[in-house]
């Protein structure tokens, strides 16, 4: 892999901070007296200890020594003592067994903890994208991602998806414009980045099959693309008795996949904890960026997660994820039940295999935007129109996204009923 | 104030995306059922309650109800109760002229951010553009410089003396900015300076405080040239004197000061807690970037801070401020004593009256770089930071070094300062 071809000009200009350098030397040489780094005195920290209780009766405890570590500046890539990065590695071995873990350290597997995967993701884009670049994305695409990349002055190129996610033919036809050899030409504007939510996609709920992922990966190899695998719903796949669909990272022999993981759907979205992983030449750039930005994710929060994992072990974590899957599967089933009850004949949908969204197509409606933003809201129903997720702004969409994560059965029933009223009213108006 | 002049094109392009606008919309429609946002269900969060114990014996409890409320996604601006505290603190310490002012964009607003540095990152995205010339303290924290470079802007250092930034020099730079920025412009057409970034208390690295008279003169210059002042003030609560030097925010009749506050030296650095305050037109944009990145602060960091403030009350807050300043003053006395004993005749210095740094000027040399020589550092086993690490103008050499006296023990200082004396005297004529 020629990693340097993917690094943006801004990212390439980033250098290690000398103060961070001295921190590293100091850590290696405890007898050195450092008057260098501006660390506040731990005697000043008001918190002495902490205890967090879990629903299954465990306690995550921080004694005085722990608290001193938890409350001090720590390394940008992730806290080292206790070691969240150690747990990240274990999780990746278990769930992805990345081929690049076998590589030499300078091109091997590395990870950087971030404040939620979104914090990591925006930095991944900043690392990869120069103004004027062509960037390939799932279409429809998570609107949070679109909000991130739109100001970066690049061309957003949609790749069509269906109920199994990205369509390889669509990717090929988009790339037809360029010869694969153009990836060796620094002056070419050939796309270098493909962004995708491969599992329980947002907004469509689609999960790419392994066959699709292999096809897409082969195309990425042919055209030398980086795949940004944004996978916050990985642990929300409903095949409770089987293993989840393998990730792009699991088939990444070249080191071209940068993976974004999130604890938002599995632990807590308010905690802001996630991580980015991939080949070291990419992750190293992210670490430098964190040094010039938030510095590091809250040490206390990192330690909370790693200590919880210490007590759970991989088995306990797996049990927890299975409970989460069961929970959302049950919510999905309820949503399908009420959608079927009220919307049969008016709408169609594919049953999601995971995640928290139902992607509903309204039959005979070219664009749901006005319907959702006005008529549905008048009925006090809030959904999202498909147009919010179009890579190309202003594209009309017959779809709307319904989130089933939060609503009670009664609310789902009521929403579906009210939504039907708003659709029917609109149809009447149109006929007149 | 015309804020459009200050808001970058980048920030113009980044609007609130539809999920957010829809959710905010739903808050204005009472009784609405919201299935728009992908909010994970609190039932799946493993944490049920938490307790933080303080060193003075106080216990801060997060009960189950509160845990359910804080563990989902939070609003980027911060928890309402924490924002209330920020208002109270600012009314007490700064009484900003624009607090409660007419809502024309200049009214005082607030948003939390992940440390002051994290806030600076989002703030610069809102107000800096490619080819901007930023005015900066002539010696400045490396993180600030990196963030300016990230925005593809440059910085010009404004000279300081024992009373802070020198107003005449600032005026001179503003009159001759094109000529002065030509050497670093690399042929680009640069934009007229619009932003001054300064650390006016316990300045990092010089330890200097900008006096009130100087602040008033500089504010007048800012009015004359229509500049924004970014008041990066993490050592504000570490002033040793009985009365505080009023901040730029306390003088801000126009709404041109954006203040960055940090809890890193007040509570703890690791939780990444800070906030930015100033004209709402700018705060809103900066907070918007945070919303696309880390989204919010970690809920544990926010709730711990909030409950800590609740337990202190304003009286307790004032007491803590006194406690901190006494603590750091004592350390300054200890270190300055040792510097007097071992380094008189070798260095000169000004006694710091705030913060945690002492800025030593090596006599008999114009270049302190040898103190960063790795082999020599390992030999003498004492680390300081050579002044050039902070300098804006890298074309010169500097005779200063920065020592931090926050954390190192008295015993280590008693060993380290004489070692430093030897390090300097035995190598002072060495060319690096």
**CATH fold-level name of the largest domain in chain A:** Aspartate Aminotransferase, domain 2
Q: Roughly how many Å is the radius of gyration of chain A?
A: 23 Å
Inertia-based shape of chain B: globular
CATH class of the largest domain in chain A: Alpha Beta
Brief overview:
Chain A has helices at residues 9-12, 18-28, 64-70, 84-95, 116-128, 143-149, 168-175, 210-223, 280-291, 299-343, 369-378, 409-431; strands at residues 33-34, 47-54, 59-62, 109-114, 134-139, 155-162, 165-166, 193-196, 226-230, 257-262, 274-279, 347-349, 357-362, 381-382, 384-385, 399-403.
Structure description:
The complex is a heterodimer of chains A (432) and B (432). Chain A has 2 domains: 3-314, Aspartate Aminotransferase, domain 2 (3-Layer(aba) Sandwich), CATH 3.40.640.10; 324-424, Alpha-Beta Complex (Aspartate Aminotransferase, domain 1), CATH 3.90.1150. Chain A is 38% helix and 17% strand. Chain A has 12 helices and 16 strands. In chain A, helix 4 packs across helix 10 (299-343), helix 5 (116-128) packs across helix 9 (280-291) and helix 11 packs across helix 12 (409-431). The longest helix of chain A has 45 residues, at 299-343. The termini of chain A are far apart. Chain B has 432 residues and is α/β, with parallel strands linked by helices. Chain B has 13 helices and 17 strands. Chain B has helices at 9-13, 18-27, 64-70, 80-93, 115-127, 142-150, 167-175, 177-185, 212-225, 280-291, 299-343, 374-380, 410-427; strands at 33-34, 47-54, 59-62, 108-113, 132-137, 154-158, 160-161, 164-165, 191-198, 228-232, 257-262, 274-279, 347-349, 357-362, 382-383, 385-386, 400-404. In chain B, the strands form 4 sheets. Chain B has a 7-stranded mixed sheet with strand order 4-12-11-10-9-5-6, sandwiched between helices. In chain B, a hairpin with a 7-residue loop joins strand 13 (347-349) and strand 14. In chain B, helix 4 (80-93) packs parallel to helix 11 (299-343), helix 7 (167-175) runs parallel beside helix 9 (212-225) and helix 11 (299-343) crosses helix 13 (410-427). Chain B is globular, with a radius of gyration of 23 Å. The model of chain B has no long low-confidence stretch (mean pLDDT 92). At the A-B interface, helix 2, strand 1, strand 2, helix 5 and helix 6 of A face helix 1, helix 2, strand 1, strand 2 and helix 5 of B. Strand 2 of chain A pairs antiparallel with strand 2 of chain B. Chain A: Keywords: Aminotransferase, Pyridoxal phosphate, Transferase. Chain A: It is an enzyme of class 2 (transferase).
